[in-house]
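Journal club prep — side note

Before the paper discussion, L.F. wants everyone to see what a predicted structure for a comparable chain looks like in token form. Sequence:
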Amino acid sequence: MTRAVDPPLAASVEAAADDLLHAVRRADWRFLLPNPQLDDVAYLAPHDPVLVEALRRAARSVTLVDADDQGTGEHDVVVATGASAAAAPRLAGLTRPDGRVYVETTGRASRRWARALARQGLDEIEVVWLWPTAAAPKELVPLHDAAAVRHALGRRDPGARLRVRVWAGRALLAAGALPLAVPAAAVLARRPAEGAS
């Protein structure tokens, strides 16, 4: 007699866990925040559908904000991908006191974003290299930490072919110009708590 056997429960639970892991991986930048557990998130247009899905799975609530939406908010984390630095006032206005802003941009535009966020009164501004891409980063390297950058560059030296790039990266780091050369970066900032000086 032959009968069908149900797949083991552990295998289906493991598959579900793998699916969830791959779905939320697009929001791995949350580990750069003081608390990686996302609560109330606002995401300013344009919206990356993969990131929207990751946020929906990783956050308690997600508000998709259109470019022409003039509402304000008190969100714990406000996200922008593909927006220009002119959106900095909008991001600051959507962020609650002691909340965080996360912006994906290019390395070249990261300084412009950092200045724009500082003009809005945000602090704890940090620029992070998203290697190799923002959509699928394997490493998140804080560009203000020279030792971390040197380590990341050293890992890119599998042989003579790339050694010139590594040396060039180290020269750019020494000159303070490495952010101009990285293709994908994130700018993180904090809106100060009310009453904080």
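L.F.'s comment for the group: The beta strands are 38-44, 59-65, 75-81, 95-105, 123-131, 139-142, 185-190. Keep this in mind when we get to the figures.
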